[in-house]
Design goal:
- The chain is of the alpha/beta class and 504 residues long.
- The chain has two domains: 8-239 and 315-388, ANL, N-terminal domain (Rossmann fold, 3-Layer(aba) Sandwich), CATH 3.40.50.12780; 407-502, ANL, C-terminal domain (GMP Synthetase, Chain A, domain 3, 2-Layer Sandwich), CATH 3.30.300.30.
- The chain has helices spanning 8-18, 38-55, 69-79, 94-103, 116-125, 137-151, 188-201, 219-230, 244-251, 260-273, 277-281, 297-305, 371-377, 418-426, 455-467, 498-502, and strands at 23-29, 32-37, 60-64, 84-88, 108-111, 130-133, 168-173, 183-187, 209-212, 234-237, 255-258, 287-290, 309-314, 324-325, 339-340, 347-350, 355-359, 384-392, 398-403, 408-409, 415-416, 431-439, 444-451, 477-480.
- Strands 11-12-13-14-15 form a five-stranded mixed β-sheet. A four-stranded mixed β-sheet has the order 2-1-10-9, sandwiched between helices. It has a four-stranded parallel β-sheet with strand order 4-3-5-6, sandwiched between helices.
- Helix 2 (38-55) packs across helix 3, helix 2 (38-55) packs across helix 6 and helix 4 crosses helix 5.
- It starts with 7 loop residues before the first helix and ends with a helix.
Length: 504
């Protein structure tokens, strides 16, 4: 496999010079889609970068807002001006945002108009914090002054040497399911490594259309957005994920990157409008790549029946969204997490204990200001310990079997991976979500499920399932929830005790 080296700076600069009028983005305006050219995109990046260099050089800059063109401009300007971008989950409350900004000594917070009130409240708790809203009069005054300076002959980033790609250019907080989020220090080189591997596996070309449907405060959303941009794909902007079908129809997407929850919603919407994606949308969706959480078999099957190829990827915030990725050519190996990263600078392996490890420029520098946590995650030889158990088969495909922190250890010494049992529960018709718990002392395994199934039918199905499993793996108690499980911003079920879930 040939890996082409990618520099985000050089790819953006090349697009600016060679195809300045091609659309980098497509934004909705009434019943039309308006293009934003590469010339405008790169001009806007240069303007923001100049503003940063002139006023807050090297600053940690929080970015708060829904997916938007302005969000991407702000992030790219940080990458290319020696600032450090701090993507913030827009679902966080004021105290949580304050905690994250203080943890990284952020001095600036830029935000969309939708979160102006939240940003104003945050500023009350951080003395000296500079705030600026996308499209506000105050921000426009600063931007116009910056544009005038550039017009007078000031050199922009595009006429300078690029900043070092191996410096820390963003701190992305993990979307942990059970623990306090940690700030992973990531580099532009890590993003480029993801782009190099993904570009070699996924068919996309200049002129293709897609959407920014993954939240940009999550590393999967950030990495795939840059991948598509460096490949010349015109990105439709979809700020409201609840209108995913409308966005896909309007922007005629050739392919999509989604979390499983969005893939499920899209499949249901397409099925309401036709027997295939082509019939419902007026054109095909060639493939969908899901990541961030396991994809239920029923969703994969539904998408396949609609004529959409489904492929998967696996990675973590700490590995800049890279460990493995399925190719959209050949056998996608349903159930696997794709091919382990075959990249000259990246190594993957399985430890003697069965843990997936990875080493390379995509791995974070450290957890910000958490040396002890970092030592536990990255060993002296530079291997990052993912915390996931699994295997890599002879063909290089990765199979995830569980999470070390969730392994149930029974008093008999037997070990049970709850994820294995959850996958079996999800195979029961009508079950949409499932969680398995264990009590090591009593050797009792219990489960909760949510879906379009009666509790009586669920218990009967679990009873039949138990017959085929070893005694120590059998589920002794099962209950049906009336509502979906609470989830993290990346679509993963938040892990809680059974008692906590019962009270919600």
């Amino acid at each position: 496999m040939q890996i082409k080296r990618i520099s985000i700076f050089e790819e953006f600069s090349r697009a600016r010079e060679e195809r300045p009028n091609d659309p980098a983005f497509l934004v909705a305006s009434g019943d039309r889609s308006l293009p934003i050219s590469w010339r405008q995109f790169t001009d806007d990046i240069a303007t923001i970068a100049h503003l940063i260099e002139a006023n807050v050089p090297g600053a940690a800059i929080g970015i708060l807002g829904e997916n938007s063109y302005e969000w991407m401009v702000a992030h790219a300007a940080c990458l290319m001006s020696n600032a450090v971008a701090i993507p913030l989950d827009s679902n966080l409350n004021v105290d949580e945002i304050v905690s994250r900004l203080k943890a990284v000594d952020a001095s600036v917070l830029v935000h969309s108009s939708l979160y102006s009130h939240k940003a104003h409240e945050v500023a009350k708790h951080i003395p000296g914090l500079i705030t600026g809203g996308f499209g506000t009069r105050k921000t426009d005054l600063y931007l116009n002054a910056s544009r005038k300076t550039i017009a007078l002959g000031f050199k922009t980033i595009w006429s300078k040497e690029p900043v070092a790609s191996d410096r820390v250019s963003m701190i992305v907080f993990t979307s942990g399911t059970t623990s306090e989020p940690r700030g992973a220090e990531l580099t532009t080189r890590g993003l480029e490594t993801f782009c190099e591997f993904a570009a070699s596996e996924l068919a996309m070309k200049p002129g293709d259309h897609s959407l920014m449907l993954l939240p940009l405060y999550h590393i999967f959303g950030i990495a795939t957005a840059y991948l598509m941009l460096v490949r010349g794909v015109a990105l439709g902007v979809c700020p409201d994920f609840r209108r995913i079908y409308d966005a896909v129809e309007r922007f005629r997407s050739d392919f999509l990157f989604l979390v499983p929850a969005l893939a499920d919603i899209l499949a249901a919407k397409i099925a309401l409008h036709g027997n295939s994606a082509t019939e419902a949308l007026g054109g095909p969706i060639n493939w969908i790549l899901t990541g961030g959480a396991p994809l239920a078999e029923r969703v994969r099957k539904k998408l396949t029946e609609l004529g959409i190829k489904v492929i998967t990827g696996y990675g973590l915030t700490e590995t800049t969204s890279l460990y493995s990725l399925a190719s959209n050519e050949g056998d996608p190996r349903p159930g696997s997490a794709g091919l382990a990263a075959i990249h000259p600078d990246v190594e993957t392996k399985v430890s003697p204990e069965g843990e997936l490890l990875i080493r390379g420029p995509n791995v974070m520098k450290c957890y910000h200001n958490m040396p002890e946590r970092t030592k536990k995650a990255i060993d002296p030889d530079g291997w990052f310990h993912t915390g996931d158990t699994g295997r890599i088969d002879d063909d290089g495909f990765v199979w995830i079997t569980g999470r070390i922190s969730r392994t149930i250890i029974l008093s008999s010494g037997k070990k049970v991976a709850p994820e294995e049992l959850e996958s079996k529960l999800l195979a029961i018709p009508g079950v949409h979500e499932a969680l398995v718990f264990g009590n090591g002392t009593t050797r009792e395994i219990s489960a909760m499920a949510y879906g379009e199934i009666t509790e009586e039918a669920l218990k009967k199905a679990v009873g039949e399932l138990n017959i085929s499993m070893p005694v120590y793996k059998r589920i002794s108690k099962v209950s049906l929830r009336k509502e979906p499980f609470p989830k993290t911003s990346s679509g993963k079920i938040k892990l809680s005790t059974p008692d906590e879930l019962q009270t919600r």
